[in-house]
């Protein structure tokens, strides 16, 4: 009887340690998460240039971070959208939402001082 009781206590301690480790891992992962943006048809977005190759720009460090704005033609899924791209851009129009950001209109009322 003593052996069975000791094994039950060891199993309970192991379960508690696993549960605590899972909670800590979830907390660490959730720190970096952000809310999913909902995309709609005809939203304007900017496309990331991270994996795009521009032949007219020899230095990657001088390229813009985003190009656009482009219009969303279709929301394929919550992670994928189809963009209306220029024909000169030789990439597939269906891209991951991680490569697009919402377009914000530039501020026109403020004057820039040098």
Short description:
26% of the residues lie in helices and 25% in strands. The chain is α+β, with helices and mostly antiparallel strands. Strands 4-3-2-1-5 form a five-stranded antiparallel sheet, with no helix packed on it.
Keyphrases for this structure?
single chain, alpha+beta, 2 domains, 1 helix, 5 strands, 25% strand
Q: Helix count?
A: 1
Domain tally: 2
- Outline type: elongated
Structural class: alpha+beta
Rg calculated over all Cα atoms? 25 Å
Summed over residues and divided by their number, the pLDDT gives a mean of 84
Walkthrough of the structure:
This protein has 114 residues and is an alpha+beta fold. The protein has two domains: 1-33; 44-102, no CATH class. The chain contains one helix and five strands, in the order αβββββ. The protein has one helix spanning 2-31; strands at residues 44-48, 66-77, 80-84, 94-96, 100-102. The chain has a five-stranded antiparallel β-sheet, with no helix packed on it. The longest helix has 30 residues, at 2-31. It is elongated and about 80 Å long.
């Amino acid at each position: 009887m003593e052996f069975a009781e000791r094994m039950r206590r060891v199993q309970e301690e192991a379960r508690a340690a696993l549960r605590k480790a899972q909670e800590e891992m979830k907390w660490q992962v959730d720190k970096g998460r952000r809310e999913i943006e909902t995309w709609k048809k005809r939203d304007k977005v900017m496309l990331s240039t991270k994996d795009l190759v521009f032949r007219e720009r020899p230095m990657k460090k001088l390229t813009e971070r985003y190009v656009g704005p482009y219009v969303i033609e279709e929301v394929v899924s919550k992670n994928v959208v189809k963009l209306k791209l220029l024909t000169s851009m030789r990439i597939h129009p269906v891209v991951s939402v991680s490569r697009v950001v919402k377009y914000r209109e530039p501020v026109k009322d403020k004057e820039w001082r040098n």
